[in-house]
């Protein structure tokens, strides 16, 4: 039956896509900002995260006044299927698990479909020399050059799954400044020990995907279902699979009801205080970007 469905989908998609649906791959003509996979080396308390992305986005009228993101760029510029222009940068960063203090939850509702959303985690590491450092993990569809997202394709084996490990300014600014998306930031109640276990589990999954690619699936293997699996692995059955997971635009409401995030009054009040777009704009290119969006 499964083989029959694959054949049927292949016929609908055409010859090029027919070959694609047969097996996931890490060897395709990837969009530049998703061409490099992250992975981590863990040795005792030390974690070295390879290929942390920190793209510089710019262009058009969406650029905030006075922001000069292209100064000093060495790699030239790229443009993806949405028209976003950016400079792609990656580096390796070393952290101590003992410095991991907490984890935050981001939710980005889809425009016109608020019941659907993109979700991300951001890990906070104490820094002896200044403000905490934040490392964000975004589970995404890995797109090829010229390819754009469509929900139906996500259920037709048209995208691989990717863990983007990135600088917080990268994954937030591209959404607040250039895609005009609404972004909500919630502080979770995870203890340092829970955050450390979660981080190790997330990095392990990134390592798996770097070796064994998987297809993204709009319903069963997406950003939110992966985050739920991570949480349930460190705390079995902590989150139940219901419509809040299948419709991740409600995932923040679920986190509120389950006591996973810090409450600021009612859920409506908590959500209103979690909205960070204005804060992100006010410190778009400032060094303390991560601190500013949490004030």
From TrEMBL:
Keyword Signal: yes
Native source species: Adhaeretor mobilis
Protein name: Lnb N-terminal periplasmic domain-containing protein
UniProt keyword S-adenosyl-L-methionine, yes or no: no
Signal sequence extent: 1-19
Keywords: Signal
Family matches, as Pfam families: Lnb_N (PF13387)
Tree of life domain: Bacteria
Domain Lnb N-terminal periplasmic: 90-246
């Amino acid at each position: 039956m499964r083989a029959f469905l694959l054949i049927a989908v292949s016929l609908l998609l055409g010859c090029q896509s027919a070959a694609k649906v047969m097996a996931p791959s890490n060897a395709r003509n990837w969009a530049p900002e998703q061409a490099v996979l992250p992975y981590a080396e863990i040795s005792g308390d030390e974690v070295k995260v390879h290929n942390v992305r920190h793209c510089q986005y710019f262009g058009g009228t969406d650029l905030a006044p006075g922001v000069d993101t292209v100064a000093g760029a060495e790699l030239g510029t790229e443009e993806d299927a949405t028209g976003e222009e950016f400079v792609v940068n990656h580096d390796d960063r070393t952290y101590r698990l003992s410095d991991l203090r907490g984890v935050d939850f981001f939710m980005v509702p889809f425009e016109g479909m608020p019941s659907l959303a993109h979700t991300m985690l951001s890990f906070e590491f104490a820094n002896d020399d200044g403000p905490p450092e934040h490392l964000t993990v975004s589970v995404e569809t890995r797109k090829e050059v010229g390819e754009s997202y469509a929900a139906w394709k996500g259920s037709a084996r048209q995208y691989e799954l990717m863990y983007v490990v990135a600088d917080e300014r990268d994954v937030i600014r591209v959404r607040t400044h250039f895609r005009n998306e609404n972004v909500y930031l919630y502080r979770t109640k995870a203890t340092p020990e829970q955050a450390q276990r979660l981080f190790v589990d997330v990095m392990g999954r990134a390592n798996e995907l770097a070796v064994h690619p998987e297809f993204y699936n709009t319903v069963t293997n997406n950003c939110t279902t992966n985050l739920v699996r991570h949480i349930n692995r460190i705390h079995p059955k902590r989150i139940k699979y219901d419509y809040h997971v299948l419709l991740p635009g409600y995932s923040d409401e679920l986190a509120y009801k389950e006591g996973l995030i810090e409450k600021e009054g009612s859920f409506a009040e908590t959500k209103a205080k979690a909205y960070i777009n204005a804060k992100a704009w006010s410190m778009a290119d400032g060094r303390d970007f991560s601190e500013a969006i949490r004030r």
